[in-house]
Amino acid sequence: MTQELLDLRSSILEGRYEEALAIVDELEGMSKQAIIRNIESFLLRLMIHLIKNQIEQRLTNSWANSINDSIRQIKKLNLKDNKTSYYINADEWQPFFEENLEAAIRPASLEVLNGQLKPKQLAARLDKEQVIELAQKLIDLTYAYSAKDLPGVVDDFLTQIPGGEEWYSD
Fold first, then answer.
1. Residue 93 located in a structural domain
2. Among 3, 29, 63, 134, whose Cα sits 20 to 30 Å from the Cα of 169?
3. Does residue 112 sit within a domain?
């Protein structure tokens, strides 16, 4: 990025404004890609915990906390500086869910049932549509609730998944 900034400065000083605008567009694209990569890292973590929950049919305090934090971080990262638009709009998540669900199977296999399942075995047991549906519902909450209210809303949502009632009541 440093080189792009030097090129931008040079283009402006030399009056090459179209070239400068092209560099600005490139920098914006790089920034958006970096933010989306960060969002995806939290989405991957979310998917791992939803997979563990589905296969083990339980919810630990650690998993609930990780799910809640992932959703909170996704909301924070996804909201643009103008506070009115998003990097990923509500109707654009499907490819992100599909890609990150596949990516989550391998690391989840290390943790699910104490690592007893190989990734292929885990994938065969997994109801992928259900995991994606849960992820979508959780992501939808980021568009509907403020950052302040989101953790409580996510906790309430988690009572509806396997082991959630026991987790919440303990």
1. yes
2. 134
3. yes
Distance CA 84, CA 166 (A): 37
Q: Among positive and negative, which fits the CA dihedral 35, 36, 40, 46?
A: positive
Q: What is the pLDDT of residues 20-36, one digit of tens each?
A: 777 666 767 667 788 99
Number of domains the chain is built from:
1
Task: Tell me the residue range of the domain where 29 lies.
Answer: 2-164
Quote the pTM value. Answer: 0.86
Q: Are 109 and 122 in contact (CB under 8 A)?
A: yes
169 located within any domain: no
Q: Which two tokens stand for residue 29?
A: 């694209």
Is 42 inside a domain boundary? yes
Cα Rg of the chain (Å, integer): 20
- Residue 2 belongs to what H/E stretch? helix 2-13
How many Å apart are CA 46 and CA 51, to the nearest integer?
Answer: 9
Task: Return the axis-axis angle of helices 128-144 and 61-78, rounded to nearest 10°.
Answer: 60
Distance CA 167, CA 164 (A): 5
Q: Which two tokens stand for residue 151?
A: 């953790």
